[in-house]
């Protein structure tokens, strides 16, 4: 499961990097379905980071991997 999550995150990284940001996989809680990520670069502190995280990263992960229930920045 973790490898699937990492693969999707790697596919999304170029989009964030294109705006000067980046995303790193931190962990996955299989019991709750929560993915933890770290936003870096321009994404760190950006007012749109929450939108990117929820409507971009979380939506894509939930679409690709039904076991994912949420994505949080740590």
What does this structure look like?
The chain is an alpha+beta fold. It is built from two helices and three strands; from the N terminus they run αββαβ. Strands 1-2-3 form a three-stranded mixed beta sheet. The longest helix has 16 residues. The chain is globular, with a radius of gyration of 11 Å. The two termini are 20 Å apart. The model has no long low-confidence stretch (mean pLDDT 93).
Brief write-up:
By secondary structure, this protein is α+β, with helices and mostly antiparallel strands.
Task: Lay out the secondary structure.
Layout lengths: L1 H16 L3 E9 L4 E8 L7 H16 L5 E4 L1
Question: What structural keywords apply?
Answer:
74 residues, alpha+beta, three-stranded mixed sheet, 2 helices, 3 strands
Tally of contiguous helical segments: 2
Strand content: 25-35%
Shape: globular
Instruction: Specify Rg, calculated over alpha carbons.
Output: 11 Å
Order of helices and strands: HEEHE
The biggest sheet, with number of strands, parallel, antiparallel or mixed sense and barrel status, is: 3 strands, mixed
